[in-house]
Amino acid sequence: MSGTDVLVVCENAALTFGRGATAVVAVHGADLSIRPGDRLAIVGPSGSGKSSLLHLLAGLERPTSGTVSWPGLDPSAGIGLVFQADSLVPALDVAENTALPLVLAGRPEAQTRRPVADALDLVGASDLADRLPEEISGGQAQRVAVARVLAQQPRLILADEPTGRLDHATGARVLDALLTAADRTGAALVVTTHDPAIAARLTVRRAMHDGRLLAQEDVS
């Protein structure tokens, strides 16, 4: 496998917030490579550094030391990120929210309809297309946020606790959609979670503890 087959590489990547006595090390020297088709769960409790590591992988944060590189993709276009918090635009309906990244990327409206419809169908939200965010539940909003990422068909999907606020059945459906979309496109999927049942459905698990990424557990 050549270097360009690796989507993203962390080499001794660390992330510190603040300086001096008040500095907080969110990630300590992480080493990690993500390749097409990978299915990785990063497991750990709240505050263990999972979200910070995901932000490094997405390019949302720059490492304080070490490096993060993307030899196999353009991080501005090839990464889809499912956030933990609410992220829908209140003034746009569900279909418009799902299409938003495609519109911002310059795709004509006529070319957004099919990927938006397919993504909403995949997460079981087709019947919500005309509703505003204030008219749907939190679980439904999270499914729409996942659909918005899937419509982009990214090569790397980063999902930060995507099922954390959902009931078991809805959470399972969201993960089903992420896995199905990744399988269809060959994308890599990285999911942070504190739920062992969610982690067990991905091929590889890495635990985080106090900002440290621990050794790989291959469960294939």
Task: Explain the layout of strands and helices.
Blueprint: E1 8-17, E2 24-34, E3 39-43, H1 50-58, E4 65-69, E5 79-82, H2 94-104, H3 113-122, H4 138-151, E6 156-160, H5 168-185, E7 188-193, H6 196-199, E8 204-209, E9 212-218
Parallel strand pairs: 3-7, 3-8, 5-6, 6-7
Antiparallel strand pairs: 1-2, 1-4, 8-9
Helix pairs in contact: 2-4, 3-4, 4-5
Characterise the protein shown here:
The mean pLDDT is 90. By secondary structure, the chain is of the alpha/beta class. The relative contact order is 0.20. It has one domain: 3-Layer(aba) Sandwich (Rossmann fold). The strands form two sheets. The protein has a six-stranded mixed β-sheet, sandwiched between helices. The longest helix has 18 residues, at 168-185. The chain has six helices and nine strands, in the order βββαββαααβαβαββ. The chain starts with 7 loop residues before the first strand and ends with a strand.
List its salient traits.
220 residues, alpha/beta, Rossmann fold, six-stranded mixed sheet, three-stranded antiparallel sheet, 6 helices, 27% strand, globular
Distance between the termini: 20 Å
CATH class: Alpha Beta
Figure out the total of helices.
Answer: 6
What's the total count of β strands?
9
Query: Which structural class is indicated by helix and strand composition?
Result: alpha/beta
> Strands of the biggest beta sheet: in what spatial order?
5-6-7-3-8-9
What characteristic shape results from the CA principal axes? globular
CATH hierarchy: architecture: 3-Layer(aba) Sandwich
